[in-house]
Amino acid sequence: MPRLLLLLTLLASLGHHGVAAVTSVAPPPNFVLILADDMGYADIGPFGSTLHRTPALDRMAREGMKLTSFYAAPVCSPSRAQVLTGSYAQRVSVPFVVLPDDRHGLHPDERTLPELLRERGYATMAIGKWHLGHEPQHLPTHHGFDRYFGLPYDRRIRLSLMRDDTVVETLEGDERNTQTARFTDEALRFIAEQRTRPFFLYFAATAVHVPLLPGKNFQGKSANGPYGDWVEELDASVGRILEALRENGLEENTLVIFTSDNGPWLPYGAEAGTAGPLRGGKGSTWEGGVRVPALARWPGRIPAGAVSDAAIGLIDLLPTFVSLAGAPIPEAPRIDGRDLSPLLLGDNVVSPHEAWFFYNVDRLEAVRSGPWKLALRPQIENLGDPQFPPDAAGSSARLYNLNTDLGERTDLAARHPHVVRRLQRLASAMARDLGDGAPGPGVRPAARAE
Questions:
Q1: H or E segment at 324?
Q2: Which residues are catalytic?
Q3: Domain ranges of the chain
Q4: For 356-448, CATH number?
Q5: What average pLDDT does range 89-95 have in this prediction?
């Protein structure tokens, strides 16, 4: 009888002509990460904007998942370091903005997201704003990207446009307003060229960072001046990328993430976005500085119209993409991110993090666990404010329930001392690792050009 069962099983596996049936194996997914610059939490339709028309991002929300507690760093270079390394920026010694005259960048020993994917056969390209060092050894092509087209830094009157390691053009005057369209054209070419090979496209937009530079075809078209014009142009770019994926037959095998590097630069007034119900803006560890809009779309894999309020963020992209690519998440060097694929694919609803930590440069200012956020010390409201001013609460810890108080206005520390103690223990453990006011033993060095 066992032999008969074995024979029947073998016959069932044979094709019509006695040939063993071939099991189809799905190809590894493609990844497209679109990172806006200084976009506020409430600047797009899925997160409550009524000023800006964002049909492509609205579509991403309808067809994918809205991530409502997605965290970046307070400013741009640290956020970009978190994307590439899967670690808090403090761990990789990029806790502050890298300026054009700075000579440091990511250390070559860091195993970056594009490097890990390239080891799995992926084509990798970075487009747009880099902002992690402009010395040759710090550029994208030295950190895992096969190709690069973009700007090594921003906010210059003259913009140096690079292809790979070479400056190929200088954008001045009205030419600066062409950058979004040119970046998008480059992204579409890359998608078409790589349609038969898995790829990772990192599209780091310069929109909507000041100076505001919307393209000619979008100027004066929104209800919110140049800022709204550029939001709507970026949305149109997202739409073009989604359409390119469809045209090349890649839509159902591509995970697209849209998010921002930090909150809005509020002191710029009409030239800045809005954090909506959140307190603070860029440069702050209040929610408005670090909680950013985020959408994830992968037709047939991510449930359509889903919403997750789990505390997750940029540090989680590396382990998530690497896991979905079928590779093991590296054990060394240590990373802080966690694999989000169970959450994105609808198999889990909770954050993989026990706690989320909010650093401002080298100071640990707050910690979140579940709905509770503990502010450990005074926090600035915006980049450019006097550093570490006293506030109404002095230097004592303040506790907020983000489920009921997104604006972080009602201090509940006195009512929930046990929660305060638990979050203080979590913060103390992190401070022993990454430091608080000075680097801790878990901090790895940056690289510096001589």
A1: helix 317-324
A2: 76, 131
A3: 30-344, 356-448
A4: 3.30.1120.10
A5: 96
